[in-house]
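ASSEMBLY PREDICTION REQUEST
Request ID: AP-0331
Submitted by: J.K., bench scientist
Number of chains: four
Total residues: 434
Priority: normal
Notes: Please return the full assembly, not individual chains.
Input sequences:
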Amino acid sequence: MSQNDEHDPTKERLLDQAEALFAQKGYDAVSVREITTAARCNLAAVNYHFGSKENLYVEVFRARWAPRAMRVQESFRDSLAAQDEASPTTVARALAEAFLIGPLSDEERYRHHQLIVRELGQPTEAFKLVADEVMRPFFRQLADMLRPTLPKGLDKEGLMLNILSMFAIVLHFNFARAAVTRMTGREYDEAFKARLVEHITEFSLNGLGGHQQEVPR
Amino acid sequence: MSQNDEHDPTKERLLDQAEALFAQKGYDAVSVREITTAARCNLAAVNYHFGSKENLYVEVFRARWAPRAMRVQESFRDSLAAQDEASPTTVARALAEAFLIGPLSDEERYRHHQLIVRELGQPTEAFKLVADEVMRPFFRQLADMLRPTLPKGLDKEGLMLNILSMFAIVLHFNFARAAVTRMTGREYDEAFKARLVEHITEFSLNGLGGHQQEVPR
DNA sequence: GTCTATAGCAGGATAGAC
DNA sequence: GTCTATCCTGCTATAGAC
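STATUS: Completed
Returned structure:
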């Protein structure tokens, strides 16, 4: 915590296991004992390295969650850069791809979205970091990309609402897997994820309206 | 629990306070002591009336959450019935109105969405009830309404994905108030909720595409 | 930096008086 | 049906040996 922040193996293991458990069960349902056991270290290690359980939670966001969010954003920008222009179509598709397929493993994606959705509904100390250093800059980029291509009548707030809605869908299909599987009967295999990317792209562009035409790639 | 299920005042107060607290903090962060104190009754009352804390949680969904979901669905059907036909436009608008304005007080809406989103992300015993008795029948109704009006090329699964996406947006704007307020700078007053209904209707119909034209009422 | 041991308190649940 | 008293387990955090 004090000087050599990275590469203390115990600290790293604690962050890994804490993230997995906080994501899976939520902050209150996880005990420090559970974390230290999973990290194969001593009970006192959390307090030694992070000061408190709460601090460890915030540190999970700083040291694990936020960097991973950056990887997703980079993946998004990369697949956009491969396109000729940033049309709403390419932006919507790149967004869906980055968040549903993207650079993360299934396990990482699961953790990532469980953690953020919990923060969205019930913000804690970690939310400042999430909002100010991750969401706001990314939404600003998206707004800058989309603004020139969308109708003039759309004000700044309307643009933000559009972005939030696209996000809502992407988050939901990652977060509510259990419910989606239950309602569609489909597991989250590669085929279904590809199907979801198609759907999200299409819905983000045309809503219920435009299911006739193909979405250009 | 055994015979006269309703109208035991203590039991009712327990359900009310338990719901409020579970919604606000999540199951694990709430203690039985906290609930019984808020309900102005004895610590032992939870175990007497519900057998256990976990059972009380499930009972909150059965006796409070599900009936309220039914009220929202009725409100949706009522505002649709006032329309000439169930076009995608009227369906989308009625959905947004039912969930964002609808028959619920702000407090009820808050509880309702906190509880369901928690279940969506991390299903418990209560999820069976939510999925089988509330979500699935409602989605089926929506599908029946929308099917005749949408393009023929849309298969059953595509229709379900569209419905899930509309839901994702509606849930998100109720659940992630804190984040939405942070990103837009707007409080959830009547004006903003009306704005959100417009946005959701428009986005559900046309996505990013159709912001030029007005949405007919 | 990692360990053991333990303080100190809060949790769910129950027994039994009323 | 409601209460008090209490059991027992588990929790976070810390002190101090190594």
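REVIEWER COMMENTS: Residues 8, 10, 41-45, 48-49 of chain B lie near DNA strand D (CB under 10 Å from a C1').
SIGN-OFF: pending second reviewer
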